[in-house]
Amino acid sequence: MKLKHHKRVAVTATTGMASTQLGFEATTLHHWSGILDGRYIIDQMKELYDHDDRFAAAKLRIQQTECLMIDEISMLSRKILELLESVCRHVRRNENMFGGIQVIVCGDFKQLPPVPNHRLQDDGCYCLESDVFKNAFVHHINLTKVIRQNEADLIKAVHELCDGSPSEETVALLKSLDRPLPDNTKITSLYGTNFDVNFINHEKLEDLAGEEFVFKAKDEGPQNLLASTNAAKTLVLKMGSPIILIRNISEGLFNGARGMVHSLKKDSPPVININGKIITIPTYKFDVFDMQKNKVLASRMQYPIMLAFAMTVHRAQGQTLQYVDVDCYSFFAAGQMGVAVGRVETKAEPLDDLSCCKTNTTTKLSSIVLPSTSDFIDDIPEDSDNENDDEIDLDLPTLQNPYEIQDFLLANENSSFLSVVSADFYTTPAFLSHVNFLYFKVNELTLNPFTKSTTQQWNSTYADLNTFLTSNEHSRSCQKLFKVHNLNKQQNKLSTKLMFWLFDKHVEMKAKNIVSSQLELMETREKQPVKHSSAGEAKIRYLAGACCNKISSRLRNSVLRKIGQTSKKSKIARTLDYKKNAMLKIFRIEESEAPHNSSMSEIENKQGASRGLTIVNDDVFNFFIKLNAVVQHNCTFEHFHIHAHKTFHFCRNSIDSDIELLDCWINLFGEIVDDNVEHEIFLVLIMELFKDITEHFVRIAFVDALKSFKASVPRKKKSSQK
């Protein structure tokens, strides 16, 4: 049209990334029209176009355009479409639709929906729900030819994923694509949220050689509001790292343009290369605007770029990518999976050694690689080659181990670390002496937690356990066992696994003894099972989602705080917190998947316009039903009278010693299969989540119970002075 009919055509897209793929000097629709992020109502926009010089260029573009083309229309909200139509009529002083501009839109409404922004009163409804869309676009052309892909099974898979109803063939195809990608290729990782993208970007940045340069933002206003901006509080870059613009800088440099870091200097702005164009990046002010209050609530000054090793599916829509690594667990919106798979032109070929065909597709929690046990507990110290043999032979304290070592061997029979020595080795006096030494340390470490069981005491015990495993004392015992000066990884792993196994067995034995003694001291009357009304179950389901969301929010904030920190401890903590947050995602279900029964009534009553309350699946809901029963048995008026301010800790200890409840919790995570992660680390993460989730639930229940108890206690009336 632009070339053949010589019309003044404006080519736009709803996202910066999509606009960069179109050519013809395409830009974002928001930039072309000047409506920015849609923060102003139509009357304010009219005033700005008429009297504000900052909008003069946009006003001229609207006046001169004869035909407007909008790509990726599915991501345009009803609010923005209606605002755009009104703006065009006002600027052109023409009461026809869009001020008489011919408008051509294209897109797939089965792909990504608009992103809601409730602070700007945009509920994220599709633009096709607007009367403007129905009245303006009466002519529809269905495009049926797929340009990007030509493989029938891949085309079918993309269509079915966008429809939300993948067939068994499509599921099988996706599983077959869960395989290694060729080395030395440009791989783009696609995720559902900015949080996941930020984490992965910094993980991959650490693998890139070179010096890190850190750029701190200048903030004004509450930090919780600034978290909604795309700008990083701490921007970390290296030479050669891929970046993406998150704001329009100048003509030709739009939001979504990708490039590389060209050069970095201390106390100087970064210099980037975008399509051969070298640019020194200026800082940009990112505002948090409240439409209802009509004012800026917070602002952040930062360079308008972000790392681009990974990107959200929303940013990738409209692009063609050669190799993609897709994280399905981070997706939250309809169409994300279909868009992600649809970015590629073809299926990757299998590797020559066919190792890709051996991938275990049952893994549920292996989206990232965690450090090994040795990384988790810090570096294992290595003694020098001239270490004195007498020191290795130093006698260490021992205590007779009461557990069958054969059970340990059977539990780990498929583990490679057992093969470092022969089977006869495990019956030698040297090995049994080492076991007795480890058991002595286990017994020593667990004295305090069972004498005075508190969360802080158990945390301290686990810290002491890790400290011992990195100590010279443990190292010397291993050296004595294997008759070496320098331990290899498998030798250390064998002793570490054995220590964890002894620790678990000892804690299990002591816990059973405590439970038995408590049962003997219990009153003869049976506890009546807690009966929940429909309203009670509904409240528990609501609180279950609230607890999971609260802990997930804490973990996300912890990860974001640690981004930019360079110490090994911070990096490992960041990785573990990210993994725990990923583990919690399996608890949540979509509102469309929720059961249609009375347990949803409390959520329905409290659900806001964003429909953003966390809804847990039935298995998690049943766990919270059991948890609530334990809490209710230990938060009675009788307990408050007897234990007073210690009631909370009494309740906490009852939860920690409830084996059935703990088993129920562990079963929520299903079978964990991940060769990249130590089994013990998964168990530690599961236990930490158990503590955090139950702690938050108990605090909520305890406050309600304490209020009821105080209300039941008679109060002495004050006598008046005469």
Number of domains: 4
How much strand?
Answer: 5-15%
Task: Give helix % range.
Answer: 40-55%
Number of strands: 19
Helix count, per DSSP?
Answer: 28
Backbone structural class: alpha/beta
Distance between the amino and carboxyl termini: 97 Å
Record the strand order, biggest sheet. Answer: 12-11-10-9-15
The biggest sheet amounts to: 5 strands, antiparallel
Characterize the overall form: globular
Q: From the alpha-carbon coordinates, what is the Rg to the nearest angstrom?
A: 31 Å
Q: Low-confidence runs (pLDDT<50, min 5 residues)?
A: 356-392, 522-526, 718-722
> Quick check: average pLDDT?
81
Brief overview:
This protein has 28 helices and 19 strands. The protein has 722 residues and is of the alpha/beta class. The model is unreliable at 356-392, 522-526 and 718-722 (pLDDT under 50).
Question: Can you walk through the features of this model?
Answer:
It is a single chain. The chain is an alpha/beta fold. It folds into four domains: 9-136, no CATH class; 152-358, no CATH class; 375-521, no CATH class; 534-712, no CATH class. 45% of the residues lie in helices and 11% in strands. It contains 28 helices and 19 strands. It has a five-stranded antiparallel β-sheet. It has a four-stranded parallel β-sheet with strand order 2-1-3-4. The chain is globular and about 95 Å long. Pfam families: PIF1 (PF05970), Pif1_2B_dom (PF21530). Keywords: ATP-binding, DNA damage, DNA recombination, DNA repair, DNA-binding, Helicase, Hydrolase, Isomerase, Nucleotide-binding. Residues 5-154 form the DNA helicase Pif1-like DEAD-box helicase domain. It catalyses: ATP + H2O = ADP + phosphate + H(+). It comes from Mytilus coruscus (Sea mussel).
